[in-house]
Write a structure and sequence with these properties.
By secondary structure, this protein is an alpha+beta fold. It contains seven helices and four strands, in the order βααβααβααβα. The chain has a four-stranded antiparallel β-sheet with strand order 2-3-1-4, with helices on both faces. The two termini are about 15 Å apart.
Length: about 150
């Protein structure tokens, strides 16, 4: 089933200058990037985005880290985009990250994850609306995709 998912490359990814490397992993896997932008989100947006974590011990640090610099927001589209993106990214916990996953190859700390991805199709729909207007989304089909 074709799905869309939201992926955020957080300030640490920009600071380490690895945006291109992470983007190319998604492209090589066959995702269509149908929306992409660099932004510095405001506190209300970040707090709404992470609302389900409010009250948890890491919430304030997560919000502060996400606000510490610009981030890249993108919508990826593919068959089973939500679980596939999360598989590529790997678990949030540093001790569970494996080489070959994005977090396993680039993460230095659990609480300073360089990437976020929607955890369900329902979350993806909600998160996409937070970061993108319908006019910013550019679905497209690859006429050469038959050879993949």
């Amino acid at each position: 089933m074709i799905q869309q998912t939201l992926v955020l490359l957080k300030p640490g990814a920009l600071q380490r200058r690895i945006i291109g490397e992470v983007l190319s992993r998604f492209e090589r896997k066959g995702f269509n990037i149908i929306a992409l932008k660099l932004l510095r989100p405001g506190k209300p947006l970040v707090e709404t985005h992470y609302a389900e974590h409010k009250g948890k011990d890491f919430y304030d640090k997560l919000v502060a880290y996400t606000l510490s610099g610009p981030l890249v927001a993108m919508i990826l589209e593919s068959e089973d985009a939500v679980p596939l993106a999360r598989l590529m990214i790997g678990p949030a916990n540093l001790m569970e990250q494996r080489p070959g996953s994005i977090r396993g190859d680039y993460a230095a700390r659990t609480r300073l994850n360089i990437v976020h991805a929607s955890d369900s199709p329902e979350s993806a729909a909600r998160e996409i609306k937070l970061f993108f207007t319908p006019e910013e989304i550019c679905p497209w089909e690859d006429g050469n995709a038959q050879w993949f």
